[in-house]
């Protein structure tokens, strides 16, 4: 009985829809607008049908919902794939640090001091930020050290071709003489009551002119001493700014500061006085050889022991020279 009632209700709804649609069709047909009606119905139907098809395609192509275990499995697979790709590039922690042997330029002692200086400079000023930006930064730093060492070697080769006698006797003496002459002219003008005018070079007229001159010097250094790969426009301009603004300009300002020069002179004098005092102290309390040995064994100051060793070696060399 219930099924019969449902069928009757649906049948009634269908006839009601037909009764509503027939007058509308008749109206459009009577006014020759039946095709417009059909076109509107088809347009609306295509719109809804297209949206439905897009939704079905999106649902069919979208990945299935992943649970926590499935997500962890996917992450593990991605990590394994990443490790597989980077297998040949990851630096092994167990590998010992390779020692880079540089060609001899000056002497072993001077070259060793320069290499230690390069190591400290790259460690304090380059390695701090390069480790966070680059992969395998140690290899990059070693390559940069080799390039800098090649530049030092090229500079040494160029300086070896200079006539040192002419450089010292003519060029340096003339520059120093001209410098003191300008100082004398300024002092004479100041003694006469006039404002002292110190004659400066063109590139020292202003801080901007000095910085431009240092940039040109840095650019020549890059072109003549460093490998050709550093002469490319972006790299050349970057190195030029670093050399001029962060290295040469602060270094020149520091070594031309009178207070800095005076402090270094006073520091040298204090070191010489301390060395002489330690030299005298070494023999003041050693009346015999046994006391001298006892003083060495009881001393815990490394600097004192170094000075004692230096004095002993010096006296042995002097005695050997006198004998021969």
Short description:
This is Sorting nexin-25. InterPro entries: Phox_assoc. The protein is mainly alpha-helical and 324 residues long.
What share of residues are in beta strands? under 5%
Kindly report how far apart the N and C termini lie. 140 Å
Number of strands: 0
What is the global morphology? elongated
Roughly what percent helix?
Answer: over 70%
Care to describe what's here?
Helices cover 78% and strands 0% of the residues. The protein has eleven helices and no strands. Helix 1 crosses helix 2, helix 4 packs antiparallel against helix 5 and helix 7 packs across helix 8. The N and C termini lie far apart (140 Å).
Question: Any descriptors?
Answer:
324 residues, mainly alpha, elongated
Which helices and strands appear, and what pairs or packs with what?
Blueprint: H1 2-30, H2 34-61, H3 68-85, H4 108-133, H5 137-160, H6 164-191, H7 207-225, H8 233-255, H9 258-284, H10 289-298, H11 302-323
Keywords: Membrane, Transmembrane, Transmembrane helix
GO molecular function, one term: phosphatidylinositol binding
InterPro entries: Phox_assoc (IPR003114)
């Amino acid at each position: 009985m219930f099924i019969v009632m449902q069928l009757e209700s649906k049948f009634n709804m269908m006839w009601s829809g037909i009764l509503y649609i027939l007058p509308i069709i008749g109206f459009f047909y009577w006014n020759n607008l039946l095709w417009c009606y059909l076109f509107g119905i088809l347009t609306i139907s295509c719109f809804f049908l297209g949206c439905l098809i897009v939704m079905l395609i999106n649902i069919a192509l979208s990945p299935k919902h992943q649970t926590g275990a499935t997500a962890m499995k996917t992450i593990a697979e991605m990590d394994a794939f990443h490790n597989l790709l980077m297998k040949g590039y990851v630096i092994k922690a167990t590998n010992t640090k390779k020692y880079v042997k540089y060609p001899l330029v000056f002497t072993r002692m001077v070259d060793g001091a320069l290499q230690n200086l390069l190591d400290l400079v790259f460690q304090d000023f380059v390695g701090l930020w390069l480790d966070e930006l680059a992969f395998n930064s140690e290899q990059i730093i070693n390559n940069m050290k080799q390039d800098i060492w090649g530049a030092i070697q090229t500079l040494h080769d160029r300086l070896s071709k200079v006539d040192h006698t002419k450089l010292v006797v003519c060029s340096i003496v003339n520059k120093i003489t001209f410098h003191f002459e300008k100082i004398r002219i300024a002092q004479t003008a100041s003694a006469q009551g006039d404002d002292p005018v110190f004659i400066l070079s063109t590139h020292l007229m202003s801080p901007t002119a000095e910085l431009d001159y240092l940039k040109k010097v840095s650019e020549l250094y890059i072109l003549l001493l460093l490998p050709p790969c550093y002469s490319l426009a972006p790299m050349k301009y970057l190195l030029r700014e670093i050399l001029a603004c962060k290295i040469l300009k602060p270094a020149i300002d520091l070594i031309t500061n009178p207070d800095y020069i005076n402090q270094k002179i006073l520091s040298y004098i204090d070191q010489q006085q301390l060395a002489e005092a330690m030299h005298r102290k070494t023999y003041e309390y050693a009346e015999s050889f046994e006391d001298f040995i006892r003083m060495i064994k009881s001393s815990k100051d490394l600097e004192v022991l170094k000075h004692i060793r230096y004095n002993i070696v010096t006296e042995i060399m002097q005695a050997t020279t006198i004998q021969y």
